[in-house]
Structures are given as structure tokens and as C-alpha cells.
Amino acid sequence: MTIALHITNDNMLYTLKNALTKTNDSTDSCFNRISQFRLRGYIKATQTEWTRSAWLTDLVKYGQDTNAPYSKRNCIGSRFDVEIVVGVLTARDNFEERQSLRDSWFGFAQSNERLMLKFIVGNEDCLTHPEYRRSPYGCTPSNLSYENIDKEVMAVNISRTSQEEKDVAVPLPSRISFQVHHPIIIQKLGLYWRGASSSMTSTYQVYLFDDMNEETVVQVMFSSSSPGVSLGDYLFKPVESFILPKDFQGSVVVKPLGEDYGWLVTPGGSLTLETGGNVISYMQYRWDEPQTSNLPIISEDVSDMFAGNFMFLIHGSEELLEIVKQTDKKHQEWSTEMDRVQKRLQEENKKHRDIVLVDVVDTYQNLPLKVLLFHKWLTDNVDFKYLFKTDDDCFMNIHNILKTINKTTFPESNVWWGNFRYNWAVQRHGKWAEHHYPSTAYPAFACGSGNMLSADLVKWTAKNYRVLHQYQGEDVSMAIWLSAILPNYLDDKMWICDEKCDQNMLASAEHSVDEIKQLWINWKECGNPCECSAQSQIK
Q: Which of 304, 463, 453 is nearest to 384 (CA)?
């Protein structure tokens, strides 16, 4: 007769603990996990009188039961043991997105004994209110102040400790690059010129360049016949006023007119960069022009960057005053909201047990580290063959993925399966700005809808996670990291990189919650996530 055993008191729990630890040292922690996740009611006997082996047998079954709260764990051992792991990158407050996946392909796949599925979440929120960050992609505070309201600010100021200090000859083009954190108005553009304007033998073009859109905003010319107005060590000319919005990234560029490159003598004194109360920040890097190099150069001595200059006003001074006054209040409101997110996330994970929290502040810029730490967690806790990575706005066709794996002889090592982008240009500005990778193009990388790594590649990144540099995104970072060991690239266009749909697709990206729901409804009805017709059927 089959009866259910209900563990009703601590004495019975400790009896079970003692029985288990006689055979396996690791069962102490396993036992604690079992009791923590409500063993009561899961263990059943096939005879009225229990034996030690029966306990162990049923505990193994419990650990392998996909319906158990802590599924895929072999409770007699200390590790998970599955063939395939699916990791879904998701933000802490993306509750609706995660639930839409649980209600569709993610939840469906959890019933398959070959698979383990986990959401990957950073264990910390950025506690700086989004309005007070330097970038929407990171967590660095802008620290705005109103010290320069209604004052015209000169971006570059020169101080000399001695008249004997020598100027420095630097190559042109030269640029001063900056990012806007509160709107400003460009008033004037300037050129360094210490000597008499009559000694200017070339015409110099100074222009404001929109780095993100790669276009000139406004420009002026300096020559001996039209030198502009001298102010300190710079010549300035007024320009049509342009309001540069928050998050604008631009450069003031100096180059000789009609020539690709040249030289200009620039200050040998000490340069001070004025931020106007942190309404702008400067980027300590520059790029040589293509005819010499296209490599980013991190500049420790800014004197080689600022042959140009500009003057600006703060736009919306009353708005800035209000922003600064509201700083403490906004941060407190945000802290309260993050406490709510933390509590809700804990409740969600307690209910579903499908979230891995990794030790990182959960921002876009930290995605490479987030992936590395998940790889570390996998290596420490799971025996597996393959890892699939995707995002919470993606639809994965688990049926097609498993069908492909079943009919294809996949190598078990050194394999990367995805839809690869080749010779993809390195962007220097915007959301995907890369300031540290010294090349004009990335190595081949899989697009973000989904891709698969064999376990050995995952373990290699996990082993080296402390020394691998984090580049601007997790997909290109993975490409750069793995290029050192040359994986076997399996290029498959059925990992669709955008929201397009194909009946044979393995995954597609950039979907709303409602689109995920409809794709799943279609697949359940006829096996075609794109649409159903009378002729459609699951193959």
C-alpha cells in the first residue's frame, strides 16, 4: 500500500538527517534545503515499514522531481545534474516580463527533465534616482549643482605657473569630447592661439560635432583675416545658439581647412575643465583620424586634446534649481521604491524558485559581469552540457531547439551556436559606445535573441571571471573573451536577431509581453508561433 509520510515535528526531521548523513557528508546541507522547501507531503512509501534505503530512494526521486519546488537537485549529491541550462537575463523590476515567460515557453520547458531554466538577476538595485544619473545605462550620480546658473562658462581654462612654460605641438584634428547631463546652450567656439593673429598662416575649422548622429551641428573658421575675439589664450567666435539636450554626446573638433591633418601649438600650462556644476562631463579619450589610426586613446594628459574650446550657458535655470532642491526627496522616494522591488522580488523567488541572484548592481553597463557571475554560479552548482542565454523580451522555440539538437551531432566541447554578426563596427558613442577595445571591428558575436555555449566554454569564462575585462555589452564581450580560444562557431540564421517571425525559428527578439503571449498561443494551437491556419499542425 502507498502511504504519504508527513514529517510533523523536529525529532522526526533530525532522525531523517542522521540517517542521511551516515552515507553522505553532503546530505547535511541537502537535508536543510529539503526541510526549507517543505519536504512534507512529497515523500511517499511503498511499504508500511520504512527502511533506510527506501528513504534514500524516495529522496533521490524527490530531488529529481520536476514538480518539486527545488527541482533538478539530486539531494543525495550536492549538485544539479541536467543536460541543458537556459539562462534568461532580466532586470530586477521586470516582473511582468518574467511572468509572461513562465506563462509561455519558459514554463513549458520547465516540465522537460533535460532542461533547467533560470532567470538571471543582479542582487542590488542602483540606489541613485534615474533622473540623477550621468547615464541611463549606469549608476554613476550626476551630482548637479546650480553654482553657474545665468553665467557664461568657458569650458577650458589655462593657468600658468611660470612664463617659461613651453607650449606643446599636437597633431590635428584635435577634439574635446563631452556629455551633457542637463541642457546647455552653445554660445561660442574657440581656438587656442597664443601669438599674434597676424602670424596665423593657415585657416582653421572649428566645429561642434554630434557624435551619436555623426553630423556637424555648427562650425566657424579662424584665419589671420578673420581671427575672432581674443579671450585669454583663446580666440572665440559666436555661433548660432543651439540647445544641447540631456545625454547629448559631442565634440568640439579643430582641423586645418582643406587638409586631413596638421599641427598646432597648444598650452603647456595647467588646464582646468569647467563643468558648470556637473551639467557636463568630459571624456578622457580621443581618436586619431582614420588615415593614422582609429584606436581610442585614453588620455592622462589633457593638453593634447584641447586645441579647441567652447562657451556655454545653462538652459532652464529654474528647472535646474528645482532638480537640485528635490535631490534628497527624489532619492528617498527611489529608495522606498527599491525596497518595494526587493520585497516583491524575494516573494517572487520564494514562490517560483527560478531566479539566480548574482552579486552585481543591476544596470545595463554591468551585463557582462552579470553573465560572468552566472557562469560562475553554474560552474559551482551544476553539471551540464550546454548553456543557452537569452533575454526576457525573447521568444524561444524550445520544441525546435530540442528537435535540432536531437537530429544534429553536436560536439560536446568548444562550440558556440547562434546567429553571428561579422565585422561589426565598434561604436564610439551612445548606448553601445566602446572606449576600450582597440579595433575598428568586433570579433564574430552571436546576436542577443539567443545562443548556446558548450559547458567547457562556460567553465573557462567562470575560471577567468576576475580578469576578463568588461566591454560595453555582454554579447560583444563574450566574442572578445572567446576569440582567445577560438571556439567552433555554428552559424544559424534561425536565431532571429529581431522581432521577425519564422515557423522554423529557434528564437526571436524584441517582443512585448502581449506579443510573447500571442506567439505562445499560436504555437500551442498549431505549432507555428507566427500564425495558425486550417492546414497548420505541430510537426
A: 453
pTM, two decimals, is: 0.79
Contact present, 80 and 381 (Cβ < 8 Å): yes
Q: How far apart are CA 295 and CA 350, in angstroms?
A: 48
Grid coordinates given for 283: 571624456
Report, as an integer, the average pLDDT of 150-158: 88
Cell of 220: 566657424
> Which domain covers residue 42, as residue numbers?
3-64
Helix or strand or coil: residue 181? coil
Q: For residue 304, is pLDDT > 70? A: no
- In angstroms, rounded to a whole number, what is the distance separating the alpha carbons of residues 367 and 448? 12
**Helices 52-64 and 27-36: angle between axes, nearest 10 degrees:** 60
Q: How far is CA 249 from the centre of its chain?
A: 19
**What's the pLDDT at 290?**
42
Q: Are residues 319 and 337 in the same domain?
A: no
Q: How far apart are CA 517 and CA 105, in angstroms?
A: 9
| Cα(85)–Cα(115) distance, integer angstroms | 6
Helices of type H across 68-175: 95-102, 105-109
Helix (H) or strand (E) holding 369: helix 367-381
CATH for 95: 3.90.550.60
Question: Residue 359 pLDDT > 90, yes or no?
Answer: yes
Q: Is residue 74 part of a domain?
A: no
DSSP 441: B
Residues 113 and 168 in one domain: no
Q: What confidence score (pLDDT) does residue 284 get?
A: 61
Element (H, E) at 269: none
